[in-house]
């Protein structure tokens, strides 16, 4: 059995670790809230942009959706994490992204941008070269700067002959502490998705009109749509990341409490044995002294 001193040091160390886990759990819960709030704040903005696109495109001829050709190159933005302690978050999104891209008939040379160093490392290990990596923003307020950098990169890809297909891959929150891998086909844009708005009641009695040149207005609305899509994808990914980390910290806290209870039991037994031994020594000494006096 371990000594009382060693068990006491263990209890102290486990207590410190439990405090750290508790702090990380609180930070994860607070971070989830800010990213969920960021996603919620986009909903009306996104709805407005989609309504605008519907109006601009309602009289346009929309090309039918198709699959990539062998001579066309794919580009992808994959959202992972910079830090660990979030379970299989990065493994699942990289495996999902590779599986989806491998299933497409397209040029095997891909342009990959990864947001999150850990996901980039996993892709490299899987044999998928990464063209560029970006660090995740520290707060929801910093997502805008990241999205602006991503839009610049997307413009560069679009100027590169052959890069016509763009996908976003990220983990989407499935609950407070769960997630599921998800993808968004961003380019070429399926315009028919905006025609589905016709199935819902228009929010006012009259359809709006516009005086701007259609091409310029469409370009501006699409720019806003790309911004919203990237912003929302990043915010959802980080909400899912912190949800996964919260679940990991909750599991760690339960394990830590169980371990502390176990060591506490060992400590009490060791302390009781030490007290019993000391009492027996006192009794034996007393009997020895009493025997000598007789």
Largest sheet: 5 strands, mixed
Spatial sequence of strands, sheet with the most strands: 3-2-1-4-5
Tell me the helix content.
55-70%
What order do the SSEs take from the amino end to the carboxyl end, as H and E? HEHEHEHEEHH
Strand content: 5-15%
Number of helices: 6
Give an overview in words.
This protein has 294 residues and is an alpha/beta fold. The protein is 61% helix and 13% strand. The chain is built from six helices and five strands; from the N terminus they run αβαβαβαββαα. A five-stranded mixed β-sheet has the order 3-2-1-4-5, with helices on both faces. β2, α3 and β3 form a beta-alpha-beta unit. It is elongated, with a radius of gyration of 30 Å. The two termini are 39 Å apart. The mean pLDDT is 85.
Strand and helix map with partners:
Blueprint: H1 4-57, E1 73-79, H2 89-102, E2 107-115, H3 117-125, E3 132-134, H4 143-159, E4 163-173, E5 179-187, H5 192-195, H6 214-293
Parallel strand pairs: 1-2, 1-4, 2-3
Antiparallel strand pairs: 4-5
Using brief descriptors, characterize the structure shown.
294 residues, alpha/beta, five-stranded mixed β-sheet, 13% strand
């Amino acid at each position: 059995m371990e000594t009382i001193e060693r068990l006491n040091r263990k209890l102290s160390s486990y207590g410190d670790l439990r405090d750290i886990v508790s702090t990380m759990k609180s930070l994860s819960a607070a971070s989830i809230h800010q990213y969920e709030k960021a996603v919620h704040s986009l909903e009306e903005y996104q709805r407005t942009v989609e309504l605008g696109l519907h109006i601009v495109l309602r009289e346009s001829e929309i090309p039918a959706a198709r699959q990539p050709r062998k001579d066309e190159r794919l580009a992808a933005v994959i959202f992972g994490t910079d830090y660990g302690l979030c379970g299989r978050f990065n493994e699942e999104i990289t495996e999902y992204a590779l599986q989806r891209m491998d299933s497409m008939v397209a040029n095997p040379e891909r342009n990959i941008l990864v947001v999150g160093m850990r996901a980039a490392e996993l892709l490299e290990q899987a044999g998928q070269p990464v063209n560029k990596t970006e660090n995740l923003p520290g707060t929801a307020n910093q997502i805008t700067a990241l999205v602006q950098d991503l839009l610049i990169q997307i413009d560069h890809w679009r100027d590169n002959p052959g890069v016509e297909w763009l996908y976003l891959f990220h983990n989407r929150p499935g609950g407070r502490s769960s997630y599921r891998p998800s993808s968004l086909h961003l380019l070429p844009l399926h315009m028919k998705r905006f025609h589905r708005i016709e199935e819902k009641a228009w929010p006012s009695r009259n359809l709006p009109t516009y005086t701007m040149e259609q091409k310029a207005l469409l370009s501006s609305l699409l720019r806003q749509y790309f911004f919203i899509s990237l912003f929302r994808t990043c915010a959802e990914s980080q909400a899912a990341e912190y949800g996964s980390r919260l679940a990991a910290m909750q599991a760690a806290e339960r394990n830590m409490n169980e371990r502390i209870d176990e060591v506490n039991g060992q400590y009490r037994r060791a302390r009781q044995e030490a007290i019993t031994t000391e009492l027996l020594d006192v009794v034996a000494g007393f009997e020895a002294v009493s025997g000598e006096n007789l």
